[in-house]
Amino acid sequence: MPWLRNIFLRAFVLGTLSLLWCFPSFGGQADGPQSLASTDWPWWRGPNRNGIAAADQKPPLTWSDTQNVVWRSLIPGKGHGSPIVVGDHVYLQTAEPDREVQSVLCLDRKTGVRLWQTDVHRGGFDKKGNEKTSLANATPASNGLHLFVNFLNAGAVQTTALDRHGKQIWQKKISDFAIHQGFGSSPAISDSLVIVAADNHGTGAIAALDQATGDVVWKHSRPKIANYTSPMILEIQGQRQVVLSGCKLVTSYEPLTGKLLWEIPGSTEECVTSTVTDGQQIYITGGYPKNHVAAVKADGSGQVVWENGSRVYVPSLLLFQGFLYATLDSGVAVCWRCDTGEERWKNRLSGTFSSSPVLVGDCIIATNEDGKSFVFKANPEVFELIAENQLGSHSYATPSICGGCIYHRVAVQADGQRQEYLYCLGQKSE
User: Fold this and answer.
1) N or C: which end of the chain has fewer CB within 10 A?
2) Environment class of residue 125 by beta-carbon count within 10 Å: exposed (0-12), middle (13-18) or buried (19+)?
3) Residue 356, H or E segment
4) How many other C-beta atoms can be found within 10 angstroms of the C-beta atom of residue 98?
5) CA–CA separation, 126 vs 220, rounded Å?
6) What is the tens place of the pLDDT at every residue in 111-126?
7) Residue 105 CA to chain centroid, in angstroms?
8) pLDDT-derived band of residue 26, with 50, 70 and 90 as boundaries?
9) Is 379 exposed, middle or buried, given 0-12, 13-18 or 19+ CB atoms closer than 10 A?
């Protein structure tokens, strides 16, 4: 009977659609990295958490406030966190001292038009800390469906989950926070968890939260020492690990369970940079109470393979084809061999650096605090400058590179007023 078959078919289709609505993972939209695209930049330091863009990217290597600008969007308030790019949208955090609001902005990826702004915290501003800092230093992270953001507010570090329309899903206090220089640790995503660190002089902690609910899956206390690093998800000797440096330690946890895998001395008290690895060694830097760059065996033995006294305190390292590239805080570019620490070259740029260098193809982009970006080759044989590009008056945020574009957060100082902008830089015919 055809009419009966049609009734059953219609019921099956409606039932299937209901399942897809109630359980998005049935439709291929599950939480996790599988929801992301290769053209996204979903969290701090990019898809592979190492500051390296996809090899097929072709962004411009020269730009200005008029050259190769796809769009420019005004950003209220002040923040040093990087933008992330997921699907058709760009997200970033900001803090507005006049309104005492910390918020998340969503921009259209193609046009830069602001689609929404969600206020995450109102009031609770604390003006203590380094004069360079902001109350929006962290970079968001996204699993493709949701956003996760860290803010220091009202004397505590709190992590908040938003959907991609800006609606708050949950908010969780990680720990109280005693301000020294400020707070800038970004969340890290691993499978179904979001991992957050809040090192400080008071009640520091590292915690893993369930992405869907915000429930604490595991949590560890940390030493009562000021520290600023972000937890990094790294593949080391074939095992995924959460690595956190600083507080006089380098510590590794199993991401899903929080089990302590290993912990060694060998880091300074205060660190800012994010750890990188070649799978066998990890490379760490610090700036207080001593300056150092070190290669450490990643087997828990604590063996230091090599170390030097360079001050790479704020900008993170780049590791590429067996060599480390760094911009010292003082405005010097350096290249070292990964295996021996041999210095291959050193070249003075200019200014002071807080932003971390990023790599696209074989070119490194490094931006100083005055908004000048130096583009040079990742060439261990010789320093080879490609371009110098000025954009804005100040820059502390690290650029994000994906889809053939550079997303660059800068501030312009004019007539005594400071105004932030996010630029999308792409190849344009003159």
Assistant:
1) C
2) middle
3) none
4) 7
5) 26
6) 999 999 999 999 999 8
7) 16
8) very low
9) middle
